[in-house]
Amino acid sequence: MLDSNTLEQLGMKEFEDFIQPHPLKYSGLGKPVVTAPIILYSDDTSGNKSKKWNCFNSWCFLVAGLPRSENSQLRNIHFITCSNKVSVLDMSRPVAEDIKTLQEGITVFDAFLKTEVIVRAPVICLIADNPRAAEVINHRGGSSRKYCRKCMVDREVDPVDVSTLRTKDVSLSQMRTIQSARTESEKESLRTSFGLRERENPILSLNVDLYQSTPVECLHTILLGPVKYLLKRFIAGLKKEQKVEVLAIVQQFNYSGFDVRLYGNIIKHHCSFVGRDYKAWAQMAAFIVTPYVTTNERKLWLALLKVFRLAYCVPFNPNCSEESRQVCKGFVDLVKEYNPQMLKKMKVHLLLHLVDDLCDFGPTAAFNTERCEAFNSLMREQNIFSNRRAPSRDIAVSFSTLEALRFVCSSGYYQSETNEDFQQCGAGLTNLYNQHAVQTVLNGVSPKSLNLGKAIYQSGALRKKQGSTKKLKDVALSFNGANQMYGEVSREYDIHSSPSFLNLDVLVQTYGAVYSQKGQLVNNGHYVRITPCLNVVYGLLLTCVTLDNLTYCILQELELQQVMGFTVHNEQDCPLLTLTKTLCVVPSSAVITHISVIHQCTSTCNITMQPFTIEREREQLSNEKLVHYHDFSNDMYCLNVFCMNQ
User: In this structure, is residue 362 part of a structural domain?
Assistant: First the structure.
C-alpha cells in the first residue's frame, strides 16, 4: 500500500485481487462498457388542477453530467412510476430491482459505434424536498429531536455545528437495534435517540449511501426556508405607514438584469409566495430592508443573502470551499445570536452541509428540483385527460409511448418483430419529427428556442422595442429624451472608441434592444456588462444603431470607484459605481449580459404622494399613491452582487 512516507508490501490475496480482470470483461464478452450515472427524483403532487388534493407519489430519474443547457430541459427527465394509492416506499421495490439491473449493466445497441455495448447506470444521488428525502431513507423528519438526515446533531444541544455524519451501514445497524427491542416503549426511545424508523425499505439496498447522497436542495431549504422566515418577520414588524413605503419601493424597483420580478402587493400576498417570488425578493432584499430593520437584523439579512449568492449567483470554486463554509457557518451563528428560535428549524442547520454537497455533486444547478417540479405538471395533465379509472397505468402508458416515439423518430436503432437486425426509421419520419410543431408536442420545446439558430437571435442582433409594430426609419440620435446631433452630444459627453467613419451628424436607424452573448434581449435603458474595451466594463445602454450594415451600441460608462487600486464597497458589500459623462461606442456583439445596478439614494431621494385617476363604470375616480422618487443627479450607483445575472 502506497503511503505518503512509507511503501508497504501487498499480501498475496490483495495482490491476486488487484490483478484480477473486471467481472464485466467476462460477462460482457469483450463488449465496450459505457457508464451513465443517473439521479433519482421522488415527489408528491396533486393530480387535480383544482384545490382538491389528489396526491400522486412518483419516481423519475435524470441522466447526470448533461450540459447545463440540456440539464434544465423537461425532455431529459424520465418517468418511472407513480400512484395515488400506494406509498412511495411500497412502490419502490420494483424501482429498486430495475435500478439494480442497470447498475450491473444491460446490453444495448450503440448508434454511434454501430455495435452492442454494455451500459451501466449507477445512482449517484437522490433529489427531493426535505420531507420526501427523510421518508426515503427512513429518517423521522424535521420534527424529530435528531432532525438532520445527514448527521446526528441534537436540536436541543448545539445545532450550530455538524455532528457525526450518518452512514448507510451505521443506520442499518441502528434500525436492526430498534427491531430487536422487546417493548414498544423501548423501540420509541431508540427511534428518538437515532432519529430513524425501522420499516422495510428496498431503496436502501442500492449500491449508494443515500444518507450522504441526498444533497441540500436550495429551493426548499433556502428560498422556502430562511428567506421565507425572515420575510414574514420583516413585514410583521413594519408599522402601517412603513408597509405603504415598502410597497412603493418594491413597485418602483429597477428590475434591469432580473429574470423574474415581483407582481402585486407584497404586503398582502407574501404568505402566498412561491419559489420564484422568494428568488426575486432575495435579489432585491438588501436594498429594501436596510432602513426598516435594526443593525442586528441587517447583519442577519446580509449573511443570508451571501448564502443565497453562494447557491445561485456565483460559480463554485472547490479551492475556496473553506471560505464558503464560513459563509454558511456565519449565518447560522448569527441566527443563534439574534434569532435563536429559528435555529430549531431543520432547514437552517442543513445549510452547514451545503458546501459538502457542492464539493461532491457540483454546482446547485446539477441537483436543484425546480425543473423536476415543473415535470409534475406533465403528470397532472396526463391524469386530467384520462378516464381516471386506472390513473397510474394511463400515465405510465402515455409516458412510455412518448419515450418510444422520441427514440424512434430521432433515428434510434430498434429491432422489428420480423427482422432481428437493427434498423432506423425513414428520412420522411425524421423530417416530420424535426418540424417545430412536432418538437413542441413531443419534447416540450418552446417555439422561441427552436428559432435560436436564426440570425435575428444571434449575439449582437438588434431588435425593435418589445411589442412595437412600427416600421424602422432614419432618425436623429436621442439622448436623455431629446434629439441631439453629434455636435451637441460632444459638448455634453466625451465620446471615445468611436469608429472614424461613424458620423453622428447624419440620420441613422435606431433600435430598441440588442441580443446579448447569453441570449438575453437587452432593452435600451438597461445596464449591461460588455467585453472590456478601453477599460470600460459596465455601462447604461442608451441606444443601438446601424450604419453601413454594421451594428453598434452606444453606452454611458459606469466607472468602478477605487481608492489606492482597491474597489470601494457599500454596506451591502456591493461595488460602488459612478455614471460618468463618457459615451462609449462598441460593437453590438460586445454586450455580454444585462446586470442589476441600484441607485445609491441620499436624503434628496424621497417617497411622495402622487395623484392618479382610474376609470370605473364610466366614471373617473381620483386617488393618491406613494411613489419612490430618485434624485439621479449624484450619479452614484452600486452593482447588485445578489442578482443572478452578473
Answer: yes
